[in-house]
Amino acid sequence: MFVLLELLTNMQNEQSNGLIAGLLIMSFGLLERKKLMWASLCIVFSVFIKIFGVVGFALFLFYPQKWKLAMYTVGWTLLLLLIPLIWIDLGQYTALFESYKQMLSEDHSISYGYSVMGWIYT
Hints:
Layout: H1 4-12, H2 17-32, H3 36-49, H4 66-82, H5 90-111, H6 116-121
């Protein structure tokens, strides 16, 4: 009930914060049940959706078999990175990553003026 209003606002505005929080909570539950493979998948999914999911990797520090968790994470990451190659060729895939890289590099200069840092700079 504590976060219900915030969750509803996120859902109405088509934001993925609730999904990321759910995936991180689910990964915690799976780690508690010693289902390392599925917990790793939840965290990797959250990172692929939004970079904030990287925080979930801090959970690995509190559980044994860190190397196993790391190997599952590398495996899921490689699998999820390679799945699009089923439908598109490697040239188009690398072009998409280059386009994404360019978009991210230009995003800072465009949105900088609307941030607190932009206001301070001005």
